[in-house]
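A quick aside before the break. I want you to see a complete sequence-to-structure record at least once, exactly as it would be stored in a machine-readable document. Don't worry about memorizing anything.
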Amino acid sequence: MPRWSGTARRLLLAFGALLAVFALAALLTLRGFQRVHDGLDTAREGAESVRLALELASAVRDQYAHQAHTIIIGDESHLGFYEAAQKRVLDLLPQVRSRAATPEELAWVDEIAGATGELDRVFRERIVPAVLRGERADVKLEHDRAQLLVTRIQDRTEQLVDGFEAAIARVQARVEASERGTVRGVLALQLASALLALGLGLWVLRSVARPIARLRAGAARLAGGDLDAHIAVDSPDEFGALAQQFNAMTRSLREHQEKLLQSEKLAGIGRLAAGVAHEINNPLGVILGYAKLLRKRADDGTAGDLRIIEEETLRCREIVEGLLDLSRPLPAHPQPVDLRELTDEVLARLREAKLLDGVTVTVEGSAVARGHAQKLRQVLFNLVRNGAEAAGTGGRVDVRLGSASGAAEVAVADSGRGISQEAAGRLFEPFFTTKDHGTGLGLAVSLAIARAHGGSIEAGAAPAGGACFTLRLPGLPGGIT
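That is the input. The structure line, written in tokens, reads:
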């Protein structure tokens, strides 16, 4: 499965947080609605409890009224109505009991039930017989007792109604508080979601839109030919990585263009040299021959002048040979070359030519590359000779051979003055030199040979403060020794 990028993860988290806020607001709203719904159900149940309690009180009054009618009329004509009222009371008592929520309310219901039963016994066992017998005194006495029972029933019924209504009031208060809390919570979450959306928009603008705009502007500059285009995006995400790749691409293009210009320049010089080298070498050979011949016959003063002519003629021939080296192709079939052995040979030749007098030279390591020994010997000769000339008498040149990342390396470091900032960009240009003598072709020819082998030469600072030139060449397949 593809891995999520940093920006994708952050966008997912940001939008997920926004959705979570909206989901939380919806959940809070639904919970508020549920609480209101539950509160309304409880309120309806409370209202039903109040209705049943009031209906019980009404049924007890009807019961007592039929008792009064029996006493007033003095016969059993209202006993049927009384039976119906009594039955209604007995039916309502269990319903009211089921609505009682507290021990106190249950005690009141039990007291009502007991008083109702007592009222029924007083009426059936005492009042009715006394009425039928015409015993007014007993009827009045029992009627007063029944009236006290009815009063007690009414009082307890009113207490039940008050308790039920108080419960309804508490439920309504909770519902109202829940409504207010829900409204406040939803408003707070809506405000938070608005702020989060604003922050998300600003973050997208800063983290996505601006880097894209910078990348677009950099690409436009590059398309317009500006190889120095640089994108300043340093965020630790794919935009930063893309900017780094873009900057690396522009550097690579710039380096390739510089190499191409250098190669074209060297090729042009080589073609020019190839075209005129023979024409120049022939006159130089004649001049050199006559100068040597005349110097043998001349006196001391003239001989000195002829020696100068001979030296300058040899210098011209050296320049022509250097130009020809720029245009000569490499021989076919490269062979493994022991760079340590080649370095030792170069040092021996330089010592024989007295070019290392007064200079301490050390060699460390070994490396093997595939190439042409004669051409690579010329490169090493130029690098070591330049290092010795830069170090001067009493100086030091360190040659280190090794391998890194599948390439053979030869680093030549000297203890000289180093490379100036002005010269750093022109070291490998033909005819450019910082020495009082020399053709300025040695490094240019060496670079051309290294590139023809698929390698490179890099110039930098040496640990001792001088210059360090590193030759890198492709190693042998399967590793480098």
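Two observations worth writing down. The first strand starts at residue 335 and ends at 338. Strands lie at 335-338, 360-364, 368-371, 396-404, 407-414, 456-461, 467-474. We'll return to this after the break.
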